[in-house]
Design goal:
With about 100 residues, the protein is an alpha/beta fold. The chain is about 30% helix and about 15% strand. It has a four-stranded parallel sheet.
């Protein structure tokens, strides 16, 4: 299974929608995981046109985005980031198993 992973889309604060490069990069993926800081459900809507989406709450997420059924992890921020800190894989693995 090919999975796309991204975070920190910050829509609409950073941009009104996701860049077209995201769509190109995720061409052919079967699942998209959003690791938080979504800010607005429209980002998940855009991703879902590519593949099914599961998301986790980021430290900047609140309000309506947390009520979105695609946001499966609503506890404290996941701590997932590009630096791949120790424990990141196990956190993501637990989240995927919990969401399945």
């Amino acid at each position: 299974m090919r999975i796309g992973l991204l975070s920190d889309t910050h829509v609409p604060q950073a941009a009104s929608k996701l860049p077209v490069e995201v769509e190109r990069a995720f061409d052919g993926v079967e699942l998209i995981l959003h690791a938080g800081d979504i800010f607005h459900s429209s980002a998940l809507d855009q991703l879902e046109r590519i593949a099914p989406v599961l998301a986790a709450r980021g430290d900047g997420d609140n309000g309506l985005v947390l009520a979105d059924s695609r946001v499966k992890w609503k506890g404290p921020s996941t701590g997932l980031n590009s630096s791949c800190t120790p424990g990141t894989f196990s956190t993501l693995q637990l989240w995927i198993n919990w969401s399945a």
